[in-house]
Design a protein that fits this description.
This protein has one domain: HAD superfamily/HAD-like (Rossmann fold, 3-Layer(aba) Sandwich). It has a five-stranded parallel sheet with strand order 3-2-1-4-5, with helices on both faces. It is an alpha/beta fold. Helix 1 packs across helix 6 and helix 1 crosses helix 7. The structure holds magnesium ion. The site of magnesium ion has 7 residues, from loops.
């Protein structure tokens, strides 16, 4: 895989677990980021939720104040209509992308660049999956913040959350081993 090295480099970058709300929108803006793209599951809330967690809502307001609400995009591989309804109601300027090929295809990020007129280096994606979101960002040439401390709710969805925890662990191991064998 051509992007194996890049994925491994990104995977190894986070010595301290990266949380969504620890991302500082002022710092992003200072680095030239003008468009923020957010995955939903794990990044805004645990799997299966229809609304972002309260601390994330507060953080979204901070991001909107710095970058502008219309510069925020939601790109989830599960574009649930209830989630789209939430954003229409609470953050009407935020675009909820659907009807594009799922990540790791770069189509969603390319659509966002068309809509916003932003260059790849002005776009930052936050995603908790190496082989979907992170890979899509590598393919589209955008920035990526790999959320290595995603939101999980084992109490609500034990089977689904365990499955995704295993998947996140497995993809990190696969990329690390691929690096050793390269
Ligand atoms: Mg996710």
């Amino acid at each position: 895989m051509a992007y194996r090295r890049q994925l491994r480099e990104i995977s190894c970058r986070y010595r301290v677990p990266q949380r969504t709300v620890a991302v500082n929108p002022e710092e992003l803006a200072a680095r030239g980021v003008t468009v923020l793209v957010l995955d939903f599951d794990g990044v805004l809330a645990p799997h299966g939720a229809t609304e972002p967690l309260p601390e994330v809502v507060e953080w979204l307001h901070r991001c909107a104040a710095i970058l502008g609400e219309e510069r925020l995009f939601i790109l989830s591989n599960r574009p649930d209509p209830l989630r789209a309804d939430y954003f229409r109601r609470e953050f009407p300027g935020v675009s909820f992308i659907s009807g594009v090929k799922k990540k790791p295809y770069p189509d969603g990020l390319q659509r966002i660049m068309e809509l916003s007129g932003a260059a790849p280096e002005q776009v930052m994606l936050l995603d908790d999956r190496l082989l979907t979101g992170v890979l899509a960002a590598c393919l589209a040439g955008t920035g990526i913040i790999y959320i290595t401390a995603p939101y999980v709710s084992l109490a609500k969805h034990p089977v689904m959350e365990s499955f995704f925890m295993l998947l996140r662990f497995a993809e990190r191991r696969v990329i690390a081993l691929a690096g050793l064998l390269a």
